[in-house]
């Protein structure tokens, strides 16, 4: 029999949630409000002079073709990273869900890469695919592929997508595996008795039952591609060559910290925050309709 929790003091529940609320306010809402306020200002790099310029920072951004190129590049990166990491993670989860000897060992190995920090991921992939030191780069040149991401923007973008997707596969794998194990075996056995082949069972039964997990991971992976790939880009290419890997989040960093244009950097962060909020709302409004709970 379930019992309702009764607090001796009516203020105790508020004291319990106060630390989390303080963290959210101090580290999320307060910096966001500061960015909004700073986006209306024109400041020098040392903060010695400040001028209120209204929407001039936004107007300059919207008139800059490089900014729209960064937006398009970010969307392309996000789609490719999300699709590739989700597809590979689902494939690995389906294979790991089978009754195999040593399956727990393999599952643990597949989860480990998530503990690797993004800058470390960048260093690992640079060592493998560096045109002069990388083992894989030497193999590519041996088969006639002219591999040099330091000069070729398309190759640099491919390198970023591969590294970012590899980093996220473990996270997606963990949720897909949990979702597969939550599906009742009797449902799949009944379909097998009815004569449904493995592929048909997967697409008509397993995949629809995984739709809540897939929807959650789509939202998480889009946010990851927009924000958490910064460390990988900064370590591997620093937005180059010729800004071929400069995404919105890295442009905020390069224009603000490296370029000293604090007002434009703040305006970019506000726009980036608005884009992510709009994308998340769109997914909850339209994509969630396809989810079967």
TrEMBL record:
Self-association or partners: how does it assemble?
Answer: The complex is composed of two ATP-binding proteins (UgpC), two transmembrane proteins (UgpA and UgpE) and a solute-binding protein (UgpB).
Q: What InterPro entries does this protein map onto?
A: MetI-like, MetI-like_sf, UgpAE/MalFG_permease
GO BP annotations listed = transmembrane transport
Chain segments annotated as transmembrane:
12-32, 70-96, 108-128, 173-193, 205-227, 266-287
Q: What is its main location?
A: membrane
What membrane topology does this protein have? Multi-pass membrane protein
Q: Which Pfam families match?
A: BPD_transp_1
Tell me the function of this protein.
Answer: Part of the ABC transporter complex UgpBAEC involved in sn-glycerol-3-phosphate (G3P) import. Probably responsible for the translocation of the substrate across the membrane.
This chain's protein is named sn-glycerol-3-phosphate transport system permease protein UgpA
NCBIfam families in the record: PRK10561.1
Q: Where does the ABC transmembrane type-1 domain lie? A: 71-283
Q: Which PROSITE patterns does the annotation name?
A: ABC_TM1
Q: Name one GO cellular component term.
A: plasma membrane
List the Gene3D superfamilies hit by this protein, alphabetically. MetI-like
Provide the family line: Belongs to the binding-protein-dependent transport system permease family.
């Amino acid at each position: 029999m379930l019992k309702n929790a009764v607090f001796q003091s009516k203020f105790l529940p508020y004291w319990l949630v106060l630390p989390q609320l303080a963290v959210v306010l101090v580290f999320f809402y307060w910096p966001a409000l500061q960015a909004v306020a700073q986006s209306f200002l024109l400041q020098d790099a040392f903060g010695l002079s400040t001028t209120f310029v209204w929407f001039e920072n936004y107007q300059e951004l919207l008139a800059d073709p490089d900014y729209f190129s960064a937006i398009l590049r970010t969307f392309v990166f996000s789609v490719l990273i999300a699709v590739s990491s989700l597809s590979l993670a689902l494939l690995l989860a389906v294979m790991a869900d089978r009754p195999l000897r040593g399956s727990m060992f393999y599952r643990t190995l597949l989860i480990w890469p998530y503990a690797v920090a993004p800058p470390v991921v960048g260093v690992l992939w640079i060592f493998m695919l560096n045109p002069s030191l990388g083992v894989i780069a030497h193999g590519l040149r041996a088969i006639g592929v002219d591999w040099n991401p330091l000069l070729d923007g398309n190759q640099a973008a491919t390198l970023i997508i591969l590294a970012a997707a590899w980093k996220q596969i473990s996270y997606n794998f963990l949720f897909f595996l949990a979702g597969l194990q939550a599906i009742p075996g009797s449902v799949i056995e009944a379909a097998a008795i009815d004569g449904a082949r493995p592929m048909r069972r997967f697409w008509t039964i397993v995949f629809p039952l995984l739709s809540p997990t897939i929807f959650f991971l789509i939202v998480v992976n889009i946010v990851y591609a927009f924000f958490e790939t910064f460390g990988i880009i900064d370590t591997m290419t620093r937005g180059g060559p010729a800004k071929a890997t400069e995404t919105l989040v890295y442009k905020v960093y390069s224009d603000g910290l490296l370029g000293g244009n604090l007002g434009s950097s703040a305006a970019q962060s506000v726009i980036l925050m608005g884009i992510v909020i709009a994308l998340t709302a769109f997914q909850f409004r339209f994509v969630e309709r396809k989810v079967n709970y």
